[in-house]
Write a structure and sequence with these properties.
The chain has 381 residues and is an alpha+beta fold. It has one domain. It contains five helices and 14 strands. The strands form four sheets. Strands 1, 2, 3, 4, 5, 6 and 7 form a seven-stranded antiparallel β-sheet that branches. The chain has a three-stranded antiparallel β-sheet with strand order 8-11-14. Strands 9-10 form a two-stranded antiparallel ribbon. The chain is elongated, with a radius of gyration of 35 Å. The N and C termini lie far apart (127 Å).
Length: 381
């Protein structure tokens, strides 16, 4: 009897051992493989979505960064326009009681210099063209259609060789004002002849490099035909002429500029530079020197204007006190699955730039830059 029980227990044990060693059935393996594939597909889809989102965010961030940097660069340069280290043209000097002798009579070429143009260069710190400026055909190459050219002039804000300012060079164009009553000239602009003094008539006046920056949009970045529109800049140098333009910021596709003109003095009287500054009378009958009648007040009058292909007139340019800048910035890489058919208006006085069927994302950036040096000296209490 005991032997039979033992045998039964042995059979039962062997039966359990056999069941424990049995593997997965084919159906179970197929179910497990299917579940694994579904999980892998879900993980892969999530990874691709996250990767695409990160790539799109990187493209958007690059676009925003390029737009803001370009706008900041132009705004800072425009803020310095007309800075001549304390020198004020006679026609814009509200403290002068003489008829001005330095009223600009012609629009200077942005791409050449002659001493005979000095008066015009000092009185016209900003120029804008809808096309290629005359004489700049060798500098403004491969210009993108329907974009403007901007020229900004001023004296360098740092002194040669001081801090990060480049050292003085014999063949560059410099400006030196005079503050000594015994000096024969009020200023010198050229490559030599810098003998003017400060107020003590013993210390040489500061000599600063003349900055003349020309901005435009080229239709490629590195290689002709690469299709990446790029903001370009040409500076004066190494001599008193512009050097080849250099690429600054990629992805700048549209560039429009409008000018704020300060052409009206107190009492809605138009500016008249053929005579000395005249002032309105106060209640006592004396001249109220805070209200010039034949000079502007430093604020734009009326709507901003956009210069035509040949540029604005002398009368407009000498009264520019503010500049509106519009930039159309696109991503450097296309966005898969995105189609841009919007119309972008760059300024109220300019035609719209219509982009149809493109898969690049775009954004318009704009700012109004005040010409501090020009508008500031026209302000009155």
């Amino acid at each position: 009897m005991n032997d039979m029980n033992a045998a039964s227990r042995g059979l039962a044990s062997g039966s359990r051992s056999g069941r424990q060693q049995s593997g997965f059935s084919l159906v179970e393996l197929m179910i497990a493989a299917t579940i694994s594939l579904l999980i892998m597909a879900a993980v892969l889809t999530l990874f691709l979505d996250v990767s695409r989102t990160n790539d799109e965010m990187a493209r958007t961030n690059a676009q925003i960064e390029n737009g803001r940097f370009a706008l900041q660069l132009l705004q800072e340069d425009l803020a310095h326009a007309g800075f001549w280290d304390g020198y004020v043209p006679e026609f814009d000097d509200l403290s002068s009681s003489e008829d001005p002798t330095d009223v600009p009579d012609d629009v200077p070429s942005p791409c050449s210099w002659s001493a005979t143009d000095n008066t015009n260069l000092l009185g016209i710190p900003v120029q804008v063209y809808d096309g290629i400026p005359p004489g700049c055909e060798a500098i403004v190459t491969n210009k993108k259609a329907d974009t403007d050219v901007l020229v900004v002039r001023h004296a360098e804000t740092c002194l040669p060789g001081v801090g990060n300012c480049e050292a003085e060079a014999a063949n560059k164009l410099y400006f030196q004002p005079s503050f000594c009553s015994s000096d024969a000239a009020r200023y010198v602009m050229g490559t030599s002849g810098f003998t003017l003094m400060k107020r003590d008539c013993a210390t040489p006046s500061n000599k600063r490099k003349v900055v003349s920056n020309l901005y435009y949009i080229r239709d490629y970045s590195v290689t002709a035909g690469d299709g990446i529109p790029t903001l370009m800049r040409s500076e004066f140098g190494p001599g008193p002429a512009p050097k080849a333009a250099e690429a600054l910021i990629e992805g700048i596709e549209g560039f429009r500029v409008e000018l704020g003109i300060d052409s009206i003095g107190d009492g809605a009287v138009a500016n008249d530079y053929d005579e000395a500054v005249t002032f309105a009378l106060d209640v006592s009958g004396d001249a109220d020197r805070s209200r010039p009648t034949n000079r502007g007040d430093g604020a734009p009058d009326g709507a901003f204007v956009r210069c035509p292909a040949g540029g604005c007139s002398v009368e407009q340019l000498i009264d520019v006190v503010a500049v509106k800048v519009f930039l159309l910035v696109r991503g450097l890489q296309s966005s898969p699955g995105y189609s841009d058919s919007k119309t972008y208006a760059l300024g109220i006085a300019s035609p719209a730039a219509e982009i149809v069927g493109s898969n690049y994302k775009r954004h318009v950036y704009s700012t109004t830059a005040r010409l501090v040096n020009v508008s500031g000296r026209r302000e009155t209490p």
